[in-house]
Design goal:
Layout: H1 15-21, E1 27-32, H2 33-43, E2 48-54, E3 58-61, E4 76-80, H3 83-95, E5 100-101, E6 115-117, E7 123-127, H4 132-135, E8 141-145, H5 146-151, E9 161-162, H6 165-168, E10 173-177, H7 179-182, H8 185-194, H9 197-205, H10 223-228
Length: about 230
């Protein structure tokens, strides 16, 4: 007889990992790998990724300019305020030669405090990540997750800068649980359900298939990429 999935919806990004770690829930689904890795370090937990659901690449878009080089002195650029994603836009600007950042600082630890040179005097506006698409018309350029961009009709080909595939790995969204749960029949059934042909078909039709589904990859084998972030 098929099992029943009991879902609890939360708006807090702290409690889900704590609840899984203490056995209140079997698994959670809300976070990317880099966030999980850092949360485990900060909270001294051992919640582990069970499998990937979808990728969450990101880039910089603009309603006003067609290239990063066109951004004027003093351009206002929107970034997500949360630490796990704040540095991603800064790294894209660094890679384009428009900023200099401290050496040896990973992207999830990068923030405005990491900037060592800002020759065009960019002004960074930090907003809640879910508000980034609403903010875009009011700034010169803005960081967006590909889903948020697609929801307002913008796609990777429209981006002024877009994360390379290797840089996207730490930001793939995972289902996470304890090591004990990972070896259970329930965990295997959960993965089979999330990675079913029906779900693949849904992703292919959602926002023109903009979200990648890296189901052939094992997140446990890619932990080095997460640490490098």
């Amino acid at each position: 007889m098929p099992g029943t999935l009991e879902a609890t919806y939360v708006t807090d990004i702290i409690q889900p990992n704590l609840a899984v770690s203490n056995g209140e829930f079997d698994a959670n689904y809300f976070q990317h790998g880099a966030y999980l890795q850092q949360f485990n370090v900060d909270q001294k937990l051992e919640v582990q990724p069970l499998f990937y659901v979808y990728g969450s690449p990101a880039g910089i878009w603009s309603k006003r300019y067609s290239s990063l080089q066109d951004l004027p002195d003093g351009a206002r650029i929107a970034l997500p305020v949360d630490p796990a994603n704040n540095g991603r836009g800064l790294v894209l600007l660094r890679d384009a030669g428009l900023l200099e950042l401290k050496d040896g600082v990973g992207v999830i630890h990068t923030s405005q405090e990491s900037i060592t040179a800002n020759p065009k005097n960019f002004e960074f506006v930090e907003v809640d990540q879910q508000s980034l698409s609403k903010t875009l018309p009011d700034v010169d350029a803005g960081f967006l997750f590909v889903r948020l961009a697609a929801e307002i009709g913008l796609f990777p080909d429209d981006a002024l800068a877009f994360e390379k595939e290797a840089d996207q790995i730490p930001f793939r969204c995972v289902v996470a649980g304890t090591a004990a749960f990972a070896d259970s029949e329930k965990a295997r059934a959960l993965q089979e359900a999330y990675q079913s042909p029906e779900v693949r078909e849904w992703f292919a039709g959602y926002l023109d298939g903009v979200l990648p589904t890296p189901w052939d990859a094992d997140p446990l084998e890619e932990l080095d990429s997460w640490w490098q972030a």
